[in-house]
Design a protein that fits this description.
Elements (H helix, E strand, L loop, with lengths): L8 H9 L5 E5 L4 E5 L8 E4 L4 E6 L2 E8 L6
Antiparallel strand pairs: 1-2, 2-5, 3-4, 4-5
Pfam families: DUF2283
InterPro entries: DUF2283
Organism: Algoriphagus oliviformis
C-alpha cells in the first residue's frame, strides 16, 4: 500500500495534483466529506488514521479519502 502523510497540506497537495479528476461530496447531516480519485473505484481495503480519516484502497492504490467530522477541522 502506498503511504500518505496528512500532517501538512504541502505533503498532501502533490498527491491530489497527480490525479486528473477528483470527485467530492459532503454529507452535512453526517458531517462527512468524501473524496474520490477514481470515479468507479471498488475499495478492497481501507485504514483509519488517528485523526479520523479513512483511506480507501483498490489494488494497493489510494482511490479515496473519507473525512469524518469534516466541519470541525481547521
Amino acid at each position: 500500500m502506498e503511504a500518505i502523510e496528512y500532517m501538512d497540506i504541502k505533503v498532501v497537495l502533490p498527491y491530489f495534483l497527480k490525479h486528473k479528476n477528483v470527485w467530492t461530496s459532503y454529507d452535512e447531516q453526517a458531517d462527512v466529506l468524501y473524496v474520490r480519485f477514481k470515479e468507479n473505484a471498488v475499495s478492497d481495503d481501507s485504514e483509519m488514521t488517528d485523526d479520523d480519516l479513512i483511506i480507501r484502497y483498490e489494488d494497493g492504490e489510494v482511490v479515496g479519502i473519507t473525512v469524518l467530522n469534516a466541519s470541525k477541522r481547521k
